[in-house]
Amino acid sequence: MKPFIIETHGLSYSFGKRQVLQNLELRVPQGAIFGFLGPNGAGKSTTIRILLGLLPVPKGQVRVHGHDLHNNRIEILRRTGSLIEMPTLYRHLSGHDNLEMHRRMVQAPKSRINEVLQIVGLTQDAYRKTKEYSLGMSQRLGIALALLADPELLILDEPTNGLDPSGIREVRELIIRLNREFGKTIFLSSHLLSEIEKCATELAIIDKGATLYQGSLPQLYQGAFQSSVLQLETSNDAIARKLLTDHQYELLPQQGDVLAVQVQDRQQVARLNRFLIVNGLEVYRLSTHTHNLEELFLNITKGEAEPAALQETILAGKV
């Protein structure tokens, strides 16, 4: 099992009388692309500010790189890079000069500038003034700034905010490359759920300052499969309906020209298919509704559904 690069233990935080985080539990495995999701006001920005040492945190509630953030803030930040929405750039300077100024602050070697420019694909545009950069190029330069000190952990908050589809793809591919080729752990907060779905290896969903789900996407989808509706078409739907009813399958009102059957798991789908074939029917269509991350996110945050393993995971203290 990989060690956790970020851990929070009963993390709570208030602004005056307003409780923002309530016993928040996070476990970010080293080497993951970790999607951090939640509706507006869920506590995401407060959590990120705490992880970056911008808000004080009680001793023992947050560990980063295996160290208590309360006592080791400077050492932790040396090993952590970040981009919070839009990078702060000196627009009258070139990309290279922006990197040079930041390099001096973090005391990185000069050779590192060319390295990060190549990583983010800005080598040919290094000496252009950043006021001439597109929004996507500016975002990639912001990631280059975060990479100068060669951090093990990157915290990215809405890195694709405002980008066109081409820019979104460039940043997504860069994030995946940083993880796979350079071994960076990436803590990624985004409202673009489709992007999280395409690149995250783990994710957490929070609301009202508390963890509602944490785990992998396959685990989330598997939990959502429970009690799914199977749609099927056969060579003789009337016979299929009678066979299924006689064998205690739960049929729903027919949806157009297809039969609708309540199923509990994938194994039941396979058994149903074999059953119809053995009884001489040809199965032309067999499909279940596939939930995407947006649907699952809305169900979880609105309290309409909960992944099957979630409550057990929370009770076992594994979130």
Automatic annotation (TrEMBL):
<keyword id="KW-0547">Nucleotide-binding</keyword>
<dbReference type="InterPro" id="IPR017871">
    <property type="entry name" value="ABC_transporter-like_CS"/>
</dbReference>
<comment type="similarity">
    <text>Belongs to the ABC transporter superfamily.</text>
</comment>
<keyword id="KW-0813">Transport</keyword>
<dbReference type="GO" id="GO:0016887">
    <property type="term" value="F:ATP hydrolysis activity"/>
</dbReference>
<keyword id="KW-0067">ATP-binding</keyword>
<dbReference type="InterPro" id="IPR003439">
    <property type="entry name" value="ABC_transporter-like_ATP-bd"/>
</dbReference>
<dbReference type="Pfam" id="PF00005">
    <property type="entry name" value="ABC_tran"/>
</dbReference>
<dbReference type="InterPro" id="IPR027417">
    <property type="entry name" value="P-loop_NTPase"/>
</dbReference>
<feature type="domain" description="ABC transporter">
    <location>
        <begin position="6"/>
        <end position="233"/>
    </location>
</feature>
<dbReference type="InterPro" id="IPR003593">
    <property type="entry name" value="AAA+_ATPase"/>
</dbReference>
<dbReference type="GO" id="GO:0005524">
    <property type="term" value="F:ATP binding"/>
</dbReference>
<protein>
    <submittedName>
        <fullName>Bacitracin ABC transporter ATP-binding protein</fullName>
    </submittedName>
</protein>
